[in-house]
Amino acid sequence: MKRNEVTNCLICNAPLNHQITWKSFLTNAFPKTICTECEQKFVPYENTSKEVISLYQYNDAMKDFLHRYKFMHDVMLAKVFRAQIHEQLSKTHATIVPIPLHPTKLKERSFAQVDELLKAAHIPYEHFLEKTMTDTQVGKTRQERLATPQFFKLIKNCKNKEIILVDDIYTTGVTINHAKNLLLHSGAKSVRAFTLIRG
Question: The Phosphoribosyltransferase domain covers which part of the protein (predicted)?
């Protein structure tokens, strides 16, 4: 993305005051895509485990962001957290594996939200999983989510791989755990997870 390509905040549309610092120029840092006021509405998540790392809490600002990004198909919003995602994942030697959408859902939505977050952050990734069920976890009780049968199948050999699963949001952990268990049972060396949001 060219510098100053985004001239207005992607959240509230206020004009962005781009200030190119020596640091941003020399490190080729991502230019800002949201204003400071909007930035402050997203609350960092305090991680207590290294098994699942999440960047932000699920608050009203994040709820609005997720709704616009996933359900109103505002794919430009993938750029909002790219610097933070890049910082977390760019130095790992593990293979980055996005949680996939079911092919039918992908057709409906027209883009895979996790893939787009990774692309925007310049993080290479590989698909090892395919989702076999179309129903989502949204609207289910915790008990219903926990009782959900395995809904992934393996599409690529993962033997001896160190893997970081990436998803947009972690709530009960069912999705991540299904994916993790399948990969470990299929020979993965280790599986950790990273999510943008913790619900």
Answer: 111-198
